[in-house]
Structures are given as structure tokens and as C-alpha cells.
Amino acid sequence: MTLYNSTFENFNKSYIGSATMAIIGQSCLGAAAAMFVLANGTSLIQMIQLAVIVFASIIANTSILAQMSHKTVFNLIITSVFFSILFIIINNI
Question: TM segments (predicted)?
Fold first, then answer.
């Protein structure tokens, strides 16, 4: 929990810059995850994976634009990055 708390404190201290970089980073990671998913075909399973990635990225970006609490934004960014990395790993195996 120490890593989470220290990372959140750094994110919170420079929220505007961190949120801007988070939008760029997690959107690019989400795009890469979408590419890996679609490289394996367009079956129902791939479309579900693609929808999860897109919704996670949209929700994270919307939380920043909606000016939600910093902790909520931080948690949604982590969730979006987690799903993107998870689907990249799944579709590389």
C-alpha cells in the first residue's frame, strides 16, 4: 500500500500535469491493446475485449474532464491501464 499511497501523493501534488500525461499514456496503451485484440480476429470474444478496453479508457478520460475527485481519477486510470496490459498479455500468448 505504500507504493500506491506515495504514487497517489505525487499524482495529487501535480494533478494537472499528471492528469494530462495520464490521458496521453493510457489512451496510447489502450490503442495498443485494441491493436493486439484485433490482430487475433473479430470474433465475439475479441469484440468483448475491445469493448472493455474502450469503455475503460473512455471512463478514465471522462473522469478527468468531469473533474471528479483526484482519488477517483487515479483509481480509474489504474483500472484502465490494468485492463489494457491484461488484454495485451492475453492476446500475445
Answer: 15-38, 44-66, 73-90
Cα separation, 20 vs 41, in Å, equals 32
HSE of 38, CA atoms in CB hemisphere, 13 A:
10
Query: What digits encode the pLDDT tens for the residues 32-55?
Result: 999 999 998 889 999 999 999 999
DSSP alpha helix (H) spans, 1-93: 2-13, 15-39, 44-65, 70-92
Among candidate residues 62, 87, 91, the one with its CA nearest the CA of residue 77: 62
Name the burial class of residue 56, with classes exposed (0-12), middle (13-18) and buried (19+) by CB atoms within 10 angstroms of its CB.
buried
Longest dimension (CA), the chain: 43
First-to-final CA distance of the chain: 30
